[in-house]
Specification:
It is built from 14 helices and no strands. The protein has 394 residues and is mainly α. The protein is globular, with a radius of gyration of 38 Å. 34% of the residues are buried. One of its GO terms (cellular component) is chloroplast membrane. InterPro entries: EmrE-like, Sugar_P_trans_dom, Tpt_PEP_transl, TPT_transporter. It is found in: Plastid, Chloroplast membrane.
């Protein structure tokens, strides 16, 4: 009985070579006959080479254990890797679809907010013809909204330094000029006419980049400018309510926004500021730049008199118009910068073109703007040229 529980050294060495001997917990209880002699080291080696011992269980029978042979464990890892890969492959289409839905929501919100802003902005300017104060209120409202969001930690405040604000300054100057010029234009002409002229911005971009910066473009880019310039000229000539100040305001806005884009690309490289916070900082600096000029050009006395007149004509609803145009101006610009964070410049250019179409059509319908067929043809040609430009530029 006792001899049956003893193992000779040769038997122990033979058992150690088995594949399942690595963990004491997995070692099966097997009784082996004891040898009738006590081997010396030389006989031990001879016994090990001549003694053959077959395991009672093979590696294939151990697959039910938590730890099998090396091949079994690697096979288990391969199966787990395949399962994980299949799960990741299934998640990729879902993530791509969710990204498309997110971009679609950004685009739809951007267009809707822009249309609403233009409607309320035109209503305010028709009753309160002070575009400098109207522009200032738009920037002030957006700046206040973002300051409150940062203070309450609804939005994370950007990490900026003095160098950031220095590089932002020329961008803010160009943004201020473009914003005021566009508001002046809409105070003198129809919203649709302003946006038809503003669709010619790509032509200004190419001309400035070519003659001031020395950049060259493919022939397709230059050819795309022909329908833009021709369409804008045709729409301007046939505009029933043409006004030179309104026309020049839209042209100056185009030029200013081209320089804004150039300064932004050159100065903001390597700056880790999100699109939402970048536009917020731009609004704050533009507000600081614009406020003294607005006071000098129009002044509090004209504002007070015009405000009283507007309240008498429209009533308390006029206050809602001013608040709405200020809030929606900031929101539509904020969503445009957030969209630019998620998409390519080409997709953004196409979206901007479609936005222009939605504003033109909606303003004509809401304000019953008189338009001739030849005027509509000019607008369509200009917008088509803008689309072709975005394709050729990329």
């Amino acid at each position: 009985m006792i001899s049956a529980l003893k193992q000779s050294p040769a038997t122990a060495l033979a058992i150690a070579d088995l594949p399942w001997v690595g963990s004491p917990m997995l070692r099966p209880r097997i009784s082996y006959p004891s040898l009738p002699f006590s081997p010396t080291p030389s006989s031990l080696l001879r016994s090990r080479s001549s003694f053959s011992l077959k395991p009672l269980c093979s590696s294939s029978s151990l697959k039910g254990f938590a730890l099998g042979s090396r091949d079994d464990r690697s096979g288990f890892r391969c199966e787990a890797y395949k399962a994980e890969s299949s799960e990741n492959a299934a998640e990729q289409p879902r993530s791509a679809a969710s990204q498309k839905v997110k971009i679609g929501i950004y685009f739809a919100t951007w267009w809707a907010l822009n249309v609403v802003f233009n409607i309320y902005n035109k209503k305010v300017l028709n009753t309160f013809p002070y575009p400098w104060l109207t522009s200032t209120l738009s920037l002030a409202c957006g700046s206040l909204m973002m300051l409150i969001s940062w203070a309450t930690r609804i939005a994370e405040a950007p990490k900026t330094d003095l160098d950031f604000w220095k590089t932002l300054f020329p961008v803010a100057v160009a943004h201020t000029i473009g914003h005021v010029a566009a508001t002046v234009s809409m105070s003198k002409v129809a919203v649709s006419f302003t946006h038809i002229i503003k669709s010619g911005e790509p032509a200004f971009s190419v001309l400035v980049s070519r003659f001031l910066l020395g950049e060259t473009f493919p022939p397709a880019v230059y050819l795309s400018l022909l329908p833009i310039i021709g369409g804008c000229a045709l729409a301007a000539v046939t505009e029933l309510n043409f006004n030179m100040i309104g026309f020049m305001g839209a042209m100056i806005s185009n030029l200013a926004f081209v320089f804004r884009n150039i300064f932004s690309k050159r100065g903001m490289k390597g700056k880790s500021v999100s699109g939402m916070n970048y536009y917020a900082c731009l609004s704050i600096m533009s507000l600081i730049i614009l406020t003294p000029f607005a006071i000098a050009v129009e002044g509090p006395q004209l504002w007070a008199a015009g405000w009283q007149t507007a309240l008498l004509q429209v009533g308390p609803q006029f206050v809602w118009w001013v608040a709405a145009q200020s809030v929606f101006y900031h929101l539509y610009n904020q969503f445009s910068y957030m969209s630019l964070d998620e998409i390519s410049p080409l997709t953004f250019s196409i979206g901007n073109t479609m936005k222009r179409i939605s504003v033109i059509v909606s303003s004509i319908i809401i304000f019953h703007t008189p338009i001739q067929p030849i005027n509509a043809l000019g607008a369509a040609i200009a917008v088509l040229g803008t689309f072709l430009y975005s394709q050729a530029k990329q």
